[in-house]
Specification:
By secondary structure, the chain is α+β, with helices and mostly antiparallel strands. Helix content is about 55%, strand content about 20%. It has helices spanning about 1-10, 25-95, 100-110, 140-155; strands spanning about 115-125, 130-140, 155-165, 170-180. The radius of gyration is 53 Å and the shape is rod-shaped.
Length: about 180
């Protein structure tokens, strides 16, 4: 049978021979390229996974940092509010001079024939530097009012909107006392 099949073949004269030896590298290069592309694909896959995990970690850190920023902002707002309230309290305290020296000065300025029937010192809560004084003196007259005002002036107070009403053997005096810091 081999003879029959061999007879069917023609002898061809112009056919080329086999591949040169250098071209035997092509299949080897193909398999190496395939293996290299698989390895490169694995490298990119694992790099992508690492990027995703680092991105998730970064997003968590970013959220924690934003939460910290908002917490610090709330604390800062609280500190600023406390500082403003403390500043207004300090201003109020600066304006709220002790009243006891005024009462002592008024009491010591009274002469023998004069007595204090009524003394009222009221402070305006919005403007603590202003103290409204109402004084009722029995006996002594206008001279006693002048002596009392001199004692108050010695404490660096000024009178504002002073009113004096003279009654029978009594004088009603009203004024707003303002502390003068410039002396």
């Amino acid at each position: 049978m081999e003879f029959i099949i061999h007879d069917l073949k023609n002898n061809r004269q112009n056919t080329t021979g086999g591949l040169p030896g250098i071209l035997k590298i092509v299949p080897i290069a193909f398999y190496l390229g395939t293996i290299f592309s698989v390895l490169l694909s694995l490298y990119f896959y694992f790099s992508y996974k690492a990027y995703k995990s680092s991105e998730q970690s970064m997003n968590q850190r970013l959220a924690a940092a934003q939460a910290e920023i908002s917490r610090i902002t709330v604390q800062e707002a609280g500190i600023v509010d406390t500082a403003e309230r403390a500043g207004s309290l300090a201003e109020w305290l600066e304006g709220a001079r002790p009243i006891q020296p005024v009462t002592v000065a008024v009491a010591r300025s009274m002469e023998k024939e004069s007595t204090i029937a009524e003394l009222s010192l009221n402070r305006n809560p919005e403007i603590p530097a202003h103290t409204f004084m109402e004084l009722k003196i029995n006996g002594g007259g206008s001279q006693q009012i002048e002596t009392t005002l001199e004692a108050i002036y010695a404490l660096n107070y000024q009178t504002y909107s002073a009113q004096q009403v003279k009654g029978k053997n009594a004088i009603d005096f009203q004024a707003t006392l303002i502390y003068n810091d410039s002396k």
